[in-house]
Amino acid sequence: MAKQPCKSQEVEVRKGPWTMEEDLILINHIANHGEGVWNSLAKAAGFKRTGNSCRLRWLNYLRPDVPRGNITPEEQFLIMDLHAKWGNMLTFYILRLVLQT
Protein backbone atom coordinates (compact mmCIF):
# COMPACT_ATOMS: atom_id res chain seq x y z
CA MET A 1 0.00 0.00 0.00
CA ALA A 2 1.38 3.41 -0.97
CA LYS A 3 2.16 5.92 1.71
CA GLN A 4 -0.10 8.98 1.63
CA PRO A 5 1.37 12.41 2.47
CA CYS A 6 -0.05 14.34 5.40
CA LYS A 7 -2.45 17.14 4.49
CA SER A 8 -0.02 19.69 5.92
CA GLN A 9 2.77 18.40 3.64
CA GLU A 10 0.78 18.41 0.41
CA VAL A 11 2.37 20.78 -2.06
CA GLU A 12 1.24 21.38 -5.61
CA VAL A 13 3.97 19.95 -7.83
CA ARG A 14 4.32 21.33 -11.33
CA LYS A 15 4.64 18.72 -14.05
CA GLY A 16 5.24 19.06 -17.74
CA PRO A 17 7.76 20.91 -19.86
CA TRP A 18 10.13 23.40 -18.32
CA THR A 19 9.73 27.05 -19.27
CA MET A 20 12.57 29.36 -20.29
CA GLU A 21 12.04 31.35 -17.07
CA GLU A 22 12.43 28.20 -14.94
CA ASP A 23 15.61 27.29 -16.82
CA LEU A 24 17.08 30.74 -16.20
CA ILE A 25 16.15 30.65 -12.50
CA LEU A 26 17.79 27.22 -12.14
CA ILE A 27 20.95 28.30 -13.99
CA ASN A 28 21.28 31.48 -11.93
CA HIS A 29 20.60 29.71 -8.64
CA ILE A 30 23.25 27.06 -9.34
CA ALA A 31 25.71 29.73 -10.50
CA ASN A 32 25.23 31.63 -7.23
CA HIS A 33 24.91 28.75 -4.76
CA GLY A 34 26.36 25.72 -6.55
CA GLU A 35 24.98 22.23 -6.88
CA GLY A 36 23.93 20.53 -3.72
CA VAL A 37 20.96 19.02 -1.98
CA TRP A 38 18.44 19.13 -4.81
CA ASN A 39 15.29 19.15 -2.67
CA SER A 40 16.59 22.17 -0.78
CA LEU A 41 17.61 23.82 -4.04
CA ALA A 42 14.11 23.37 -5.48
CA LYS A 43 12.54 25.01 -2.43
CA ALA A 44 15.13 27.79 -2.15
CA ALA A 45 14.80 28.71 -5.83
CA GLY A 46 11.02 28.87 -5.45
CA PHE A 47 10.17 26.02 -7.81
CA LYS A 48 7.04 23.96 -7.53
CA ARG A 49 9.00 21.01 -8.86
CA THR A 50 10.71 18.14 -7.13
CA GLY A 51 14.41 18.18 -6.39
CA ASN A 52 14.86 15.19 -8.68
CA SER A 53 13.24 17.11 -11.55
CA CYS A 54 15.68 20.00 -10.99
CA ARG A 55 18.63 17.62 -10.82
CA LEU A 56 17.71 15.86 -14.06
CA ARG A 57 17.06 19.14 -15.86
CA TRP A 58 20.49 20.43 -14.83
CA LEU A 59 22.44 17.26 -15.54
CA ASN A 60 20.82 16.38 -18.87
CA TYR A 61 20.09 19.75 -20.48
CA LEU A 62 21.43 22.87 -18.78
CA ARG A 63 24.88 21.94 -17.52
CA PRO A 64 27.46 23.77 -19.69
CA ASP A 65 29.65 20.72 -20.33
CA VAL A 66 26.85 18.52 -21.75
CA PRO A 67 27.87 17.56 -25.31
CA ARG A 68 25.41 18.77 -27.91
CA GLY A 69 25.08 18.35 -31.62
CA ASN A 70 24.82 15.62 -34.16
CA ILE A 71 26.86 12.45 -34.03
CA THR A 72 29.80 12.23 -36.39
CA PRO A 73 29.90 9.78 -39.31
CA GLU A 74 32.53 7.78 -37.40
CA GLU A 75 30.23 7.49 -34.36
CA GLN A 76 27.33 6.47 -36.59
CA PHE A 77 29.46 3.78 -38.24
CA LEU A 78 30.57 2.51 -34.83
CA ILE A 79 26.94 2.31 -33.64
CA MET A 80 25.94 0.38 -36.76
CA ASP A 81 28.91 -1.96 -36.36
CA LEU A 82 28.09 -2.62 -32.69
CA HIS A 83 24.44 -3.20 -33.58
CA ALA A 84 25.46 -5.73 -36.22
CA LYS A 85 27.56 -7.58 -33.62
CA TRP A 86 25.30 -7.42 -30.56
CA GLY A 87 21.83 -6.34 -31.73
CA ASN A 88 19.77 -4.15 -29.42
CA MET A 89 21.90 -4.71 -26.31
CA LEU A 90 22.33 -1.06 -25.37
CA THR A 91 24.66 -1.76 -22.45
CA PHE A 92 27.40 -2.84 -24.85
CA TYR A 93 27.09 0.45 -26.72
CA ILE A 94 27.18 2.51 -23.56
CA LEU A 95 30.38 0.80 -22.47
CA ARG A 96 32.03 1.72 -25.75
CA LEU A 97 30.64 5.15 -26.57
CA VAL A 98 30.33 8.57 -25.03
CA LEU A 99 26.65 9.28 -25.63
CA GLN A 100 25.36 12.71 -26.54
CA THR A 101 22.10 13.99 -25.13
TrEMBL record:
Residues in Myb-like domain copies:
10-62
Keywords, comma-separated and alphabetical: DNA-binding, Nucleus, Repeat, Transcription, Transcription regulation
Residue span(s) of domain HTH myb-type: 10-66
A single GO molecular-function term is: DNA-binding transcription factor activity
InterPro entries tied to this protein: EOBI/EOBII-like_plant, Homeodomain-like_sf, Myb_dom, SANT/Myb
Gene Ontology cellular component terms for the protein in this record: nucleus
Output the Gene3D superfamilies linked to this UniProt entry: Homeodomain-like
Places the protein is found: Nucleus
Q: What is this protein called?
A: MYB305 protein
| Taxon lineage | Eukaryota, Viridiplantae, Streptophyta, Embryophyta, Tracheophyta
